Protein backbone atom coordinates (compact mmCIF):
# COMPACT_ATOMS: atom_id res chain seq x y z
CA UNK A 1 0.00 0.00 0.00
CA UNK A 2 1.38 3.44 -0.92
CA UNK A 3 2.19 6.06 1.70
CA UNK A 4 -0.30 8.42 0.09
CA UNK A 5 -3.06 5.82 0.23
CA UNK A 6 -2.20 5.02 3.84
CA UNK A 7 -2.36 8.68 4.88
CA UNK A 8 -5.72 9.05 3.13
CA UNK A 9 -7.02 6.04 4.96
CA UNK A 10 -5.76 7.38 8.28
CA UNK A 11 -7.34 10.80 7.64
CA UNK A 12 -10.68 9.27 6.69
CA UNK A 13 -10.63 7.10 9.76
CA UNK A 14 -9.90 10.05 12.07
CA UNK A 15 -12.56 12.22 10.40
CA UNK A 16 -15.16 9.49 10.64
CA UNK A 17 -14.34 8.88 14.28
CA UNK A 18 -14.61 12.61 15.03
CA UNK A 19 -17.94 12.80 13.18
CA UNK A 20 -19.34 9.87 15.16
CA UNK A 21 -18.22 11.46 18.44
CA UNK A 22 -19.95 14.70 17.38
CA UNK A 23 -23.19 12.87 16.63
CA UNK A 24 -23.10 11.09 20.00
CA UNK A 25 -22.52 14.41 21.76
CA UNK A 26 -25.55 16.07 20.13
CA UNK A 27 -28.17 13.33 20.09
CA UNK A 28 -30.64 12.78 22.90
CA UNK A 29 -29.53 10.45 25.67
CA UNK A 30 -31.21 7.04 25.76
CA UNK A 31 -31.52 5.19 29.06
CA UNK A 32 -31.72 1.44 29.56
CA UNK A 33 -32.77 1.12 33.21
CA UNK A 34 -36.29 -0.19 32.50
CA UNK A 35 -38.03 2.99 33.66
CA UNK A 36 -40.47 4.86 31.42
CA UNK A 37 -38.72 8.08 30.42
CA UNK A 38 -39.73 10.82 28.01
CA UNK A 39 -36.10 10.99 26.87
CA UNK A 40 -36.69 7.50 25.41
CA UNK A 41 -40.27 8.08 24.26
CA UNK A 42 -41.08 10.08 21.12
CA UNK A 43 -43.60 12.85 21.85
CA UNK A 44 -43.53 15.32 18.93
CA UNK A 45 -45.68 18.03 20.52
CA UNK A 46 -46.11 21.34 18.71
CA UNK A 47 -46.69 24.95 19.68
CA UNK A 48 -49.89 26.60 18.53
CA UNK A 49 -49.82 27.39 14.83
CA UNK A 50 -50.40 30.79 13.28
CA UNK A 51 -53.97 29.73 12.54
CA UNK A 52 -54.72 28.99 16.19
CA UNK A 53 -52.54 31.54 17.93
CA UNK A 54 -55.28 34.18 17.86
CA UNK A 55 -57.05 32.49 20.80
CA UNK A 56 -59.35 30.50 18.52
CA UNK A 57 -60.66 27.46 20.37
CA UNK A 58 -59.01 24.15 19.52
CA UNK A 59 -61.17 21.04 19.31
CA UNK A 60 -60.13 17.58 20.44
CA UNK A 61 -58.74 16.64 17.04
CA UNK A 62 -56.57 19.77 16.88
CA UNK A 63 -55.17 18.90 20.31
CA UNK A 64 -54.48 15.27 19.35
CA UNK A 65 -52.35 16.52 16.47
CA UNK A 66 -50.59 19.25 18.45
CA UNK A 67 -49.97 16.97 21.43
CA UNK A 68 -48.25 14.39 19.21
CA UNK A 69 -50.85 11.59 19.29
CA UNK A 70 -51.44 11.39 15.54
CA UNK A 71 -50.74 12.93 12.15
CA UNK A 72 -52.96 13.12 9.09
CA UNK A 73 -51.75 11.04 6.15
CA UNK A 74 -54.52 11.73 3.64
CA UNK A 75 -58.14 12.88 3.72
CA UNK A 76 -59.82 10.82 6.44
CA UNK A 77 -56.68 8.71 7.03
CA UNK A 78 -54.38 9.11 10.03
CA UNK A 79 -51.11 7.73 11.40
CA UNK A 80 -51.01 6.95 15.12
CA UNK A 81 -47.83 8.04 16.91
CA UNK A 82 -46.52 6.48 20.17
CA UNK A 83 -48.85 8.41 22.51
CA UNK A 84 -51.90 7.67 20.36
CA UNK A 85 -50.96 4.02 20.08
CA UNK A 86 -50.71 3.70 23.87
CA UNK A 87 -54.24 5.07 24.23
CA UNK A 88 -55.50 2.70 21.52
CA UNK A 89 -53.75 -0.27 23.16
CA UNK A 90 -55.37 0.53 26.52
CA UNK A 91 -58.81 0.77 24.92
CA UNK A 92 -58.25 -2.61 23.25
CA UNK A 93 -57.08 -4.24 26.50
CA UNK A 94 -60.17 -2.93 28.26
CA UNK A 95 -62.34 -4.35 25.48
CA UNK A 96 -60.51 -7.69 25.71
CA UNK A 97 -61.29 -7.86 29.43
CA UNK A 98 -65.02 -7.42 28.96
CA UNK A 99 -65.27 -9.64 25.88
CA UNK A 100 -63.50 -12.49 27.68
CA UNK A 101 -65.88 -12.12 30.63
CA UNK A 102 -68.80 -13.08 28.37
CA UNK A 103 -66.90 -15.99 26.83
CA UNK A 104 -65.91 -14.43 23.51
CA UNK A 105 -62.89 -15.72 21.58
CA UNK A 106 -60.68 -13.31 19.66
CA UNK A 107 -60.05 -13.73 15.93
CA UNK A 108 -58.36 -11.67 13.23
CA UNK A 109 -60.09 -11.52 9.85
CA UNK A 110 -58.59 -10.35 6.58
CA UNK A 111 -59.16 -6.77 5.47
CA UNK A 112 -60.04 -8.15 2.01
CA UNK A 113 -63.60 -9.40 1.68
CA UNK A 114 -65.12 -11.28 -1.23
CA UNK A 115 -67.50 -9.16 -3.27
CA UNK A 116 -69.36 -12.36 -4.16
CA UNK A 117 -70.36 -12.84 -0.51
CA UNK A 118 -71.70 -9.29 -0.34
CA UNK A 119 -73.72 -9.89 -3.49
CA UNK A 120 -75.08 -13.08 -1.97
CA UNK A 121 -76.12 -11.36 1.27
CA UNK A 122 -77.77 -8.55 -0.68
CA UNK A 123 -75.73 -5.82 0.98
CA UNK A 124 -73.81 -4.70 -2.07
CA UNK A 125 -76.80 -3.01 -3.68
CA UNK A 126 -76.81 0.72 -3.12
CA UNK A 127 -73.49 0.76 -1.21
CA UNK A 128 -70.98 0.79 -4.05
CA UNK A 129 -70.03 4.44 -3.60
CA UNK A 130 -68.82 3.98 -0.03
CA UNK A 131 -66.87 0.77 -0.66
CA UNK A 132 -63.23 0.49 -1.70
CA UNK A 133 -63.49 -2.12 -4.47
CA UNK A 134 -60.61 -3.84 -6.29
CA UNK A 135 -59.72 -6.81 -8.50
CA UNK A 136 -56.76 -9.17 -8.45
CA UNK A 137 -54.78 -10.18 -11.54
CA UNK A 138 -57.37 -12.88 -12.27
CA UNK A 139 -60.21 -10.33 -12.13
CA UNK A 140 -61.60 -11.76 -8.90
CA UNK A 141 -63.52 -8.99 -7.13
CA UNK A 142 -62.75 -7.91 -3.58
CA UNK A 143 -63.43 -4.98 -1.33
CA UNK A 144 -61.72 -3.48 1.69
CA UNK A 145 -64.07 -4.61 4.41
CA UNK A 146 -66.09 -1.94 6.24
CA UNK A 147 -67.48 -4.79 8.36
CA UNK A 148 -67.24 -8.61 8.38
CA UNK A 149 -70.69 -10.16 8.75
CA UNK A 150 -70.45 -12.08 5.48
CA UNK A 151 -66.98 -13.46 6.14
CA UNK A 152 -67.56 -14.53 9.75
CA UNK A 153 -70.91 -16.13 8.86
CA UNK A 154 -69.20 -18.16 6.14
CA UNK A 155 -66.47 -19.31 8.54
CA UNK A 156 -69.03 -20.45 11.12
CA UNK A 157 -71.23 -22.05 8.45
CA UNK A 158 -68.34 -24.28 7.37
CA UNK A 159 -67.20 -25.16 10.89
CA UNK A 160 -70.34 -25.39 13.06
CA UNK A 161 -73.01 -27.98 12.28
CA UNK A 162 -74.71 -28.91 15.55
CA UNK A 163 -76.64 -27.04 18.22
CA UNK A 164 -74.12 -28.53 20.66
CA UNK A 165 -71.49 -26.14 19.24
CA UNK A 166 -73.58 -23.10 20.13
CA UNK A 167 -73.70 -20.49 21.55
CA UNK A 168 -70.56 -19.10 19.95
CA UNK A 169 -69.11 -15.63 20.43
CA UNK A 170 -66.26 -14.35 18.26
CA UNK A 171 -64.74 -10.88 18.19
CA UNK A 172 -61.95 -9.00 16.50
CA UNK A 173 -60.32 -5.58 16.69
CA UNK A 174 -59.20 -4.59 13.21
CA UNK A 175 -58.97 -1.91 10.56
CA UNK A 176 -62.09 -1.07 8.58
CA UNK A 177 -62.52 1.01 5.44
CA UNK A 178 -65.30 3.24 4.16
CA UNK A 179 -65.00 5.74 1.31
CA UNK A 180 -66.69 8.61 3.10
CA UNK A 181 -67.89 11.35 0.77
CA UNK A 182 -66.89 14.01 3.30
CA UNK A 183 -64.44 12.88 5.98
CA UNK A 184 -64.56 15.27 8.92
CA UNK A 185 -63.79 15.82 12.59
CA UNK A 186 -60.61 13.78 12.50
CA UNK A 187 -61.06 10.28 13.91
CA UNK A 188 -64.83 10.72 14.26
CA UNK A 189 -65.55 10.38 10.54
CA UNK A 190 -62.63 8.79 8.72
CA UNK A 191 -62.08 6.54 5.73
CA UNK A 192 -59.89 4.08 7.64
CA UNK A 193 -60.64 3.28 11.27
CA UNK A 194 -60.21 0.68 14.03
CA UNK A 195 -63.28 -1.19 15.23
CA UNK A 196 -64.13 -3.97 17.61
CA UNK A 197 -66.71 -6.36 16.15
CA UNK A 198 -68.36 -9.07 18.24
CA UNK A 199 -70.40 -11.68 16.36
CA UNK A 200 -72.74 -13.97 18.28
CA UNK A 201 -74.36 -17.21 17.11
CA UNK A 202 -77.30 -18.97 18.81
CA UNK A 203 -79.77 -21.72 17.96
CA UNK A 204 -82.97 -19.74 18.53
CA UNK A 205 -84.02 -16.10 18.44
CA UNK A 206 -84.91 -16.28 22.13
CA UNK A 207 -81.38 -17.43 22.96
CA UNK A 208 -79.96 -14.73 20.68
CA UNK A 209 -81.95 -12.07 22.54
CA UNK A 210 -80.61 -13.39 25.85
CA UNK A 211 -77.10 -13.09 24.41
CA UNK A 212 -77.96 -9.58 23.23
CA UNK A 213 -78.79 -8.50 26.78
CA UNK A 214 -75.53 -10.03 28.03
CA UNK A 215 -73.62 -7.99 25.47
CA UNK A 216 -75.49 -4.83 26.44
CA UNK A 217 -74.48 -5.40 30.06
CA UNK A 218 -70.85 -5.91 28.98
CA UNK A 219 -70.94 -2.66 27.00
CA UNK A 220 -72.25 -0.77 30.00
CA UNK A 221 -69.54 -2.28 32.22
CA UNK A 222 -66.90 -1.26 29.66
CA UNK A 223 -68.21 2.31 29.52
CA UNK A 224 -68.44 2.43 33.32
CA UNK A 225 -64.73 1.56 33.45
CA UNK A 226 -64.00 4.63 31.33
CA UNK A 227 -65.75 6.74 33.97
CA UNK A 228 -67.15 9.08 31.31
CA UNK A 229 -70.82 10.10 31.01
CA UNK A 230 -72.59 8.17 28.27
CA UNK A 231 -76.04 7.71 26.76
CA UNK A 232 -77.76 4.53 25.56
CA UNK A 233 -80.55 4.91 23.01
CA UNK A 234 -82.83 2.78 20.87
CA UNK A 235 -81.62 3.06 17.30
CA UNK A 236 -82.25 2.28 13.65
CA UNK A 237 -80.50 -0.86 12.34
CA UNK A 238 -79.96 0.75 8.93
CA UNK A 239 -78.03 -1.18 6.30
CA UNK A 240 -76.79 -3.68 8.90
CA UNK A 241 -80.23 -5.27 9.05
CA UNK A 242 -82.02 -6.89 11.95
CA UNK A 243 -84.93 -5.82 14.10
CA UNK A 244 -83.44 -4.54 17.33
CA UNK A 245 -80.50 -2.26 18.09
CA UNK A 246 -79.06 0.21 20.59
CA UNK A 247 -76.49 2.97 20.25
CA UNK A 248 -73.96 4.08 22.85
CA UNK A 249 -72.97 7.75 22.84
CA UNK A 250 -70.82 10.39 24.47
CA UNK A 251 -72.62 13.72 24.80
CA UNK A 252 -70.83 16.29 22.62
CA UNK A 253 -71.79 19.61 21.09
CA UNK A 254 -69.92 18.48 17.97
CA UNK A 255 -71.86 15.21 17.73
CA UNK A 256 -73.79 14.29 14.60
CA UNK A 257 -76.63 12.54 16.45
CA UNK A 258 -79.38 13.90 18.67
CA UNK A 259 -80.48 11.68 21.55
CA UNK A 260 -83.90 12.29 23.07
CA UNK A 261 -84.48 11.13 26.63
CA UNK A 262 -87.33 11.46 29.11
CA UNK A 263 -86.68 12.76 32.63
CA UNK A 264 -89.71 10.89 33.96
CA UNK A 265 -89.18 7.38 32.55
CA UNK A 266 -86.38 5.40 30.87
CA UNK A 267 -87.34 6.45 27.32
CA UNK A 268 -84.21 7.12 25.23
CA UNK A 269 -84.02 7.12 21.45
CA UNK A 270 -82.00 8.46 18.55
CA UNK A 271 -83.86 11.28 16.82
CA UNK A 272 -83.89 9.14 13.67
CA UNK A 273 -86.35 6.76 15.39
CA UNK A 274 -88.35 9.40 17.21
CA UNK A 275 -92.06 9.64 16.55
CA UNK A 276 -93.95 11.92 18.97
CA UNK A 277 -96.99 10.70 20.81
CA UNK A 278 -100.11 11.61 18.83
CA UNK A 279 -102.13 14.51 20.10
CA UNK A 280 -105.83 14.57 19.15
CA UNK A 281 -106.27 15.77 15.58
CA UNK A 282 -108.19 18.99 15.01
CA UNK A 283 -111.61 18.82 13.38
CA UNK A 284 -113.16 21.63 11.35
CA UNK A 285 -115.79 21.98 8.68
CA UNK A 286 -114.45 22.30 5.17
CA UNK A 287 -116.34 25.55 4.68
CA UNK A 288 -114.76 27.23 7.71
CA UNK A 289 -111.27 25.74 7.55
CA UNK A 290 -108.54 28.33 6.95
CA UNK A 291 -106.55 28.29 3.72
CA UNK A 292 -103.06 29.39 2.86
CA UNK A 293 -101.07 30.35 -0.16
CA UNK A 294 -98.94 27.26 -0.66
CA UNK A 295 -95.82 29.39 -0.88
CA UNK A 296 -96.03 30.77 2.65
CA UNK A 297 -98.89 30.35 5.16
CA UNK A 298 -100.14 33.43 6.95
CA UNK A 299 -99.50 33.89 10.66
CA UNK A 300 -103.13 33.17 11.53
CA UNK A 301 -103.15 29.84 9.67
CA UNK A 302 -102.41 26.99 12.13
CA UNK A 303 -100.14 25.05 9.79
CA UNK A 304 -97.15 25.31 7.48
CA UNK A 305 -96.32 23.43 4.29
CA UNK A 306 -93.10 21.64 3.39
CA UNK A 307 -92.36 20.64 -0.20
CA UNK A 308 -90.18 17.87 -1.52
CA UNK A 309 -89.76 15.86 -4.69
CA UNK A 310 -88.93 12.37 -5.86
CA UNK A 311 -86.81 11.97 -8.97
CA UNK A 312 -88.77 8.86 -9.97
CA UNK A 313 -92.50 8.32 -10.09
CA UNK A 314 -93.99 6.18 -7.38
CA UNK A 315 -94.63 2.54 -8.14
CA UNK A 316 -96.92 1.45 -5.36
CA UNK A 317 -97.65 -2.18 -4.65
CA UNK A 318 -100.15 -4.16 -2.65
CA UNK A 319 -97.45 -5.30 -0.25
CA UNK A 320 -98.27 -4.92 3.41
CA UNK A 321 -95.23 -2.74 3.87
CA UNK A 322 -97.00 -0.03 1.86
CA UNK A 323 -98.69 1.03 5.07
CA UNK A 324 -95.40 2.35 6.46
CA UNK A 325 -93.22 2.90 3.38
CA UNK A 326 -93.95 4.19 -0.09
CA UNK A 327 -91.05 2.66 -2.03
CA UNK A 328 -90.07 4.33 -5.27
CA UNK A 329 -87.56 1.75 -6.45
CA UNK A 330 -88.16 0.28 -9.88
CA UNK A 331 -90.08 3.31 -11.13
CA UNK A 332 -89.64 4.91 -14.51
CA UNK A 333 -86.73 7.38 -14.45
CA UNK A 334 -86.96 11.16 -14.85
CA UNK A 335 -90.57 11.48 -13.70
CA UNK A 336 -91.22 13.78 -10.75
CA UNK A 337 -93.41 13.24 -7.72
CA UNK A 338 -94.45 16.26 -5.70
CA UNK A 339 -94.54 15.65 -1.95
CA UNK A 340 -96.53 18.13 0.11
CA UNK A 341 -96.47 17.89 3.92
CA UNK A 342 -98.80 19.87 6.18
CA UNK A 343 -97.24 20.58 9.58
CA UNK A 344 -98.52 22.50 12.60
CA UNK A 345 -97.45 26.13 12.63
CA UNK A 346 -94.92 27.29 15.18
CA UNK A 347 -91.39 26.15 16.05
CA UNK A 348 -91.71 22.84 14.21
CA UNK A 349 -89.42 21.48 11.52
CA UNK A 350 -89.88 18.58 9.13
CA UNK A 351 -88.49 15.26 10.35
CA UNK A 352 -86.46 14.21 7.31
CA UNK A 353 -85.75 10.78 8.80
CA UNK A 354 -89.50 10.14 9.03
CA UNK A 355 -90.02 11.34 5.46
CA UNK A 356 -87.27 8.99 4.27
CA UNK A 357 -89.10 6.09 5.89
CA UNK A 358 -92.39 7.02 4.21
CA UNK A 359 -90.86 7.88 0.83
CA UNK A 360 -87.37 6.29 0.64
CA UNK A 361 -86.48 7.95 -2.68
CA UNK A 362 -87.41 11.48 -1.65
CA UNK A 363 -84.75 14.10 -2.34
CA UNK A 364 -84.21 15.96 0.93
CA UNK A 365 -81.12 17.82 -0.27
CA UNK A 366 -82.58 20.13 -2.91
CA UNK A 367 -84.42 23.27 -1.87
CA UNK A 368 -86.72 24.67 -4.56
CA UNK A 369 -89.73 26.93 -4.63
CA UNK A 370 -93.16 25.27 -4.67
CA UNK A 371 -94.07 26.95 -7.97
CA UNK A 372 -91.10 25.21 -9.58
CA UNK A 373 -92.16 21.86 -8.17
CA UNK A 374 -95.70 22.29 -9.46
CA UNK A 375 -94.26 23.27 -12.82
CA UNK A 376 -92.07 20.18 -12.89
CA UNK A 377 -95.06 18.09 -11.92
CA UNK A 378 -96.99 19.28 -14.96
CA UNK A 379 -94.00 19.08 -17.31
CA UNK A 380 -93.32 15.47 -16.34
CA UNK A 381 -96.95 14.46 -16.73
CA UNK A 382 -97.67 12.36 -19.81
CA UNK A 383 -100.76 10.51 -20.91
CA UNK A 384 -99.26 7.09 -20.19
CA UNK A 385 -97.18 8.00 -17.13
CA UNK A 386 -99.00 10.64 -15.10
CA UNK A 387 -97.02 12.46 -12.45
CA UNK A 388 -97.84 11.85 -8.80
CA UNK A 389 -98.83 14.27 -6.09
CA UNK A 390 -98.51 13.01 -2.52
CA UNK A 391 -99.96 14.92 0.40
CA UNK A 392 -99.23 14.04 4.03
CA UNK A 393 -100.52 15.68 7.16
CA UNK A 394 -99.53 15.86 10.78
CA UNK A 395 -102.41 14.77 13.07
CA UNK A 396 -102.46 18.29 14.53
CA UNK A 397 -103.55 19.69 11.14
CA UNK A 398 -107.26 19.27 10.20
CA UNK A 399 -108.02 17.36 7.01
CA UNK A 400 -110.45 20.07 5.91
CA UNK A 401 -107.72 22.68 5.86
CA UNK A 402 -105.69 20.54 3.49
CA UNK A 403 -108.56 20.16 1.03
CA UNK A 404 -109.26 23.89 1.06
CA UNK A 405 -105.62 24.84 0.63
CA UNK A 406 -105.06 22.45 -2.27
CA UNK A 407 -108.16 23.76 -4.03
CA UNK A 408 -107.08 27.34 -3.33
CA UNK A 409 -103.68 26.70 -4.86
CA UNK A 410 -105.03 25.00 -7.97
CA UNK A 411 -107.54 27.81 -8.59
CA UNK A 412 -105.31 30.79 -7.81
CA UNK A 413 -101.76 29.52 -8.11
CA UNK A 414 -99.35 30.93 -10.66
CA UNK A 415 -99.35 27.74 -12.71
CA UNK A 416 -103.03 27.37 -13.65
CA UNK A 417 -102.26 24.58 -16.13
CA UNK A 418 -102.01 22.05 -13.34
CA UNK A 419 -105.54 22.69 -12.13
CA UNK A 420 -106.99 19.53 -13.62
CA UNK A 421 -104.11 17.41 -12.30
CA UNK A 422 -104.56 18.84 -8.84
CA UNK A 423 -108.32 18.40 -8.73
CA UNK A 424 -108.03 14.82 -9.89
CA UNK A 425 -105.53 14.22 -7.10
CA UNK A 426 -107.65 15.68 -4.33
CA UNK A 427 -109.80 12.58 -3.73
CA UNK A 428 -106.60 10.54 -3.37
CA UNK A 429 -104.98 12.79 -0.78
CA UNK A 430 -103.44 10.66 1.95
CA UNK A 431 -104.90 11.92 5.22
CA UNK A 432 -103.37 9.26 7.46
CA UNK A 433 -102.00 10.85 10.66
CA UNK A 434 -98.22 10.74 10.23
CA UNK A 435 -96.29 12.68 12.88
CA UNK A 436 -93.63 14.26 10.71
CA UNK A 437 -92.12 17.00 12.85
CA UNK A 438 -88.82 16.91 14.67
CA UNK A 439 -89.05 16.51 18.41
CA UNK A 440 -90.12 19.56 20.40
CA UNK A 441 -89.69 20.18 24.11
CA UNK A 442 -93.43 20.34 24.69
CA UNK A 443 -94.07 16.95 23.03
CA UNK A 444 -95.63 14.19 25.05
CA UNK A 445 -93.19 11.43 25.91
CA UNK A 446 -94.09 8.54 23.55
CA UNK A 447 -93.57 6.05 26.40
CA UNK A 448 -95.07 7.59 29.54
CA UNK A 449 -97.13 10.43 28.04
CA UNK A 450 -95.63 13.14 30.26
CA UNK A 451 -95.56 16.61 28.69
CA UNK A 452 -92.41 18.74 28.81
CA UNK A 453 -90.17 15.96 30.14
CA UNK A 454 -88.02 15.41 27.04
CA UNK A 455 -84.37 16.46 26.92
CA UNK A 456 -82.19 16.73 23.82
CA UNK A 457 -78.46 15.98 23.69
CA UNK A 458 -76.08 16.22 20.76
CA UNK A 459 -73.91 13.11 20.87
CA UNK A 460 -71.13 11.10 19.23
CA UNK A 461 -71.86 7.41 18.65
CA UNK A 462 -69.05 5.18 19.92
CA UNK A 463 -70.79 1.78 19.95
CA UNK A 464 -73.76 -0.10 18.49
CA UNK A 465 -75.40 -3.44 19.29
CA UNK A 466 -77.57 -5.22 16.70
CA UNK A 467 -79.84 -8.25 16.98
CA UNK A 468 -79.57 -9.61 13.44
CA UNK A 469 -81.76 -12.69 13.70
CA UNK A 470 -81.55 -14.60 10.40
CA UNK A 471 -80.50 -11.56 8.31
CA UNK A 472 -77.22 -13.21 7.20
CA UNK A 473 -77.69 -16.87 8.03
CA UNK A 474 -80.60 -17.14 5.58
CA UNK A 475 -78.91 -15.85 2.39
CA UNK A 476 -75.56 -17.42 3.32
CA UNK A 477 -77.20 -20.72 4.35
CA UNK A 478 -75.65 -20.95 7.81
CA UNK A 479 -77.59 -23.75 9.51
CA UNK A 480 -77.15 -26.23 12.35
CA UNK A 481 -78.97 -29.38 13.34
CA UNK A 482 -81.09 -28.75 16.44
CA UNK A 483 -81.90 -31.21 19.23
CA UNK A 484 -84.82 -32.53 17.16
CA UNK A 485 -82.49 -33.31 14.24
CA UNK A 486 -84.02 -30.46 12.22
CA UNK A 487 -81.96 -28.00 10.18
CA UNK A 488 -82.41 -24.48 11.59
CA UNK A 489 -80.85 -21.19 10.57
CA UNK A 490 -78.48 -19.68 13.11
CA UNK A 491 -79.72 -16.63 15.01
CA UNK A 492 -77.05 -13.93 15.01
CA UNK A 493 -76.04 -10.65 16.57
CA UNK A 494 -73.26 -8.18 15.80
CA UNK A 495 -71.94 -5.59 18.19
CA UNK A 496 -69.40 -2.88 17.43
CA UNK A 497 -67.24 -0.40 19.31
CA UNK A 498 -65.41 2.26 17.31
CA UNK A 499 -61.94 2.14 18.88
CA UNK A 500 -60.40 5.04 16.97
CA UNK A 501 -63.68 6.95 17.19
CA UNK A 502 -63.73 6.41 20.97
CA UNK A 503 -60.17 7.73 21.14
CA UNK A 504 -61.18 10.90 19.30
CA UNK A 505 -64.43 11.34 21.22
CA UNK A 506 -62.75 10.87 24.61
CA UNK A 507 -60.15 13.48 23.70
CA UNK A 508 -62.86 15.99 22.79
CA UNK A 509 -65.04 15.25 25.79
CA UNK A 510 -62.62 16.38 28.51
CA UNK A 511 -60.32 18.80 26.67
CA UNK A 512 -59.99 22.32 28.02
CA UNK A 513 -58.05 25.48 27.23
CA UNK A 514 -54.78 23.92 28.44
CA UNK A 515 -54.97 20.71 26.47
CA UNK A 516 -56.19 17.12 26.61
CA UNK A 517 -57.42 15.54 29.84
CA UNK A 518 -57.59 11.75 29.63
CA UNK A 519 -59.67 9.42 31.80
CA UNK A 520 -57.19 7.39 33.81
CA UNK A 521 -58.30 4.05 32.29
CA UNK A 522 -56.97 4.96 28.83
CA UNK A 523 -54.44 7.77 29.47
CA UNK A 524 -51.13 7.16 27.67
CA UNK A 525 -49.50 7.35 31.11
CA UNK A 526 -51.41 7.88 34.35
CA UNK A 527 -48.68 9.74 36.26
CA UNK A 528 -45.91 12.09 35.17
CA UNK A 529 -42.95 12.60 37.51
CA UNK A 530 -41.03 15.84 36.94
CA UNK A 531 -38.27 17.39 39.06
CA UNK A 532 -36.93 20.90 39.45
CA UNK A 533 -33.23 21.65 39.25
CA UNK A 534 -31.22 20.45 42.22
CA UNK A 535 -33.12 17.17 42.64
CA UNK A 536 -30.88 14.27 41.72
CA UNK A 537 -31.84 11.69 39.11
CA UNK A 538 -31.31 9.03 41.78
CA UNK A 539 -34.01 10.56 43.98
CA UNK A 540 -36.39 10.90 41.02
CA UNK A 541 -35.77 7.27 40.05
CA UNK A 542 -36.38 6.04 43.60
CA UNK A 543 -39.72 7.88 43.84
CA UNK A 544 -40.73 6.58 40.41
CA UNK A 545 -39.90 3.01 41.45
CA UNK A 546 -42.05 3.28 44.58
CA UNK A 547 -45.01 4.75 42.70
CA UNK A 548 -44.73 2.24 39.86
CA UNK A 549 -44.38 -0.80 42.15
CA UNK A 550 -47.31 0.25 44.34
CA UNK A 551 -49.73 1.30 41.59
CA UNK A 552 -49.03 -1.04 38.66
CA UNK A 553 -51.44 -3.65 40.04
CA UNK A 554 -54.16 -0.97 39.74
CA UNK A 555 -53.32 -0.41 36.06
CA UNK A 556 -51.74 2.96 36.91
CA UNK A 557 -48.46 3.58 35.10
CA UNK A 558 -45.92 6.40 35.37
CA UNK A 559 -43.29 8.12 33.27
CA UNK A 560 -40.41 10.48 34.13
CA UNK A 561 -39.87 13.73 32.24
CA UNK A 562 -36.07 13.80 32.23
CA UNK A 563 -35.66 15.93 29.12
CA UNK A 564 -33.28 18.87 29.12
CA UNK A 565 -36.00 21.52 29.14
CA UNK A 566 -37.10 24.31 31.53
CA UNK A 567 -39.60 23.34 34.23
CA UNK A 568 -42.29 25.72 32.88
CA UNK A 569 -42.03 24.19 29.42
CA UNK A 570 -42.34 20.67 30.86
CA UNK A 571 -45.47 21.54 32.86
CA UNK A 572 -47.13 23.18 29.84
CA UNK A 573 -46.26 20.14 27.74
CA UNK A 574 -47.73 17.87 30.43
CA UNK A 575 -51.00 19.85 30.41
CA UNK A 576 -51.16 19.61 26.63
CA UNK A 577 -50.71 15.81 26.64
CA UNK A 578 -53.22 15.40 29.47
CA UNK A 579 -51.68 13.14 32.13
CA UNK A 580 -54.25 12.56 34.92
CA UNK A 581 -51.61 13.17 37.64
CA UNK A 582 -48.43 15.25 37.73
CA UNK A 583 -45.93 14.79 40.59
CA UNK A 584 -43.56 17.74 41.00
CA UNK A 585 -40.37 17.39 43.06
CA UNK A 586 -39.39 20.94 43.98
CA UNK A 587 -38.61 22.99 47.09
CA UNK A 588 -40.89 20.95 49.34
CA UNK A 589 -39.04 17.79 48.32
CA UNK A 590 -35.68 19.28 49.22
CA UNK A 591 -36.92 20.66 52.54
CA UNK A 592 -39.27 17.94 53.89
CA UNK A 593 -39.60 15.10 51.38
CA UNK A 594 -43.01 16.26 50.13
CA UNK A 595 -44.20 16.58 46.53
CA UNK A 596 -46.75 18.75 44.77
CA UNK A 597 -49.55 16.55 43.40
CA UNK A 598 -51.53 18.06 40.52
CA UNK A 599 -54.78 16.80 38.99
CA UNK A 600 -56.26 19.30 36.55
CA UNK A 601 -59.50 17.42 36.03
CA UNK A 602 -60.30 17.52 39.76
CA UNK A 603 -58.83 20.99 40.25
CA UNK A 604 -56.22 19.69 42.72
CA UNK A 605 -52.78 21.15 43.38
CA UNK A 606 -51.61 20.18 46.87
CA UNK A 607 -48.54 19.26 48.86
CA UNK A 608 -48.42 15.58 49.83
CA UNK A 609 -45.78 13.83 52.01
CA UNK A 610 -43.93 11.18 50.02
CA UNK A 611 -45.12 8.38 52.31
CA UNK A 612 -48.78 9.32 51.62
CA UNK A 613 -48.45 9.81 47.86
CA UNK A 614 -49.58 6.37 46.69
CA UNK A 615 -52.61 6.40 48.98
CA UNK A 616 -53.62 9.86 47.75
CA UNK A 617 -53.32 8.89 44.07
CA UNK A 618 -55.49 5.80 44.65
CA UNK A 619 -58.05 7.94 46.46
CA UNK A 620 -58.33 10.44 43.61
CA UNK A 621 -58.05 7.93 40.77
CA UNK A 622 -61.47 6.47 41.60
CA UNK A 623 -62.95 9.79 40.42
CA UNK A 624 -61.07 9.76 37.13
UniProtKB/TrEMBL annotation:
Gene3D superfamilies: Anticodon-binding domain (3.40.50.800), Bira Bifunctional Protein, Domain 2 (3.30.930.10). SUPFAM superfamilies: Class II aaRS ABD-related, Class II aaRS and biotin synthetases. Keywords: Aminoacyl-tRNA synthetase, ATP-binding, Cytoplasm, Ligase, Nucleotide-binding, Protein biosynthesis. It catalyses: tRNA(Pro) + L-proline + ATP = L-prolyl-tRNA(Pro) + AMP + diphosphate. GO terms for biological process: prolyl-tRNA aminoacylation. Belongs to the class-II aminoacyl-tRNA synthetase family. This is proline--tRNA ligase. It comes from Passalora fulva (Tomato leaf mold).
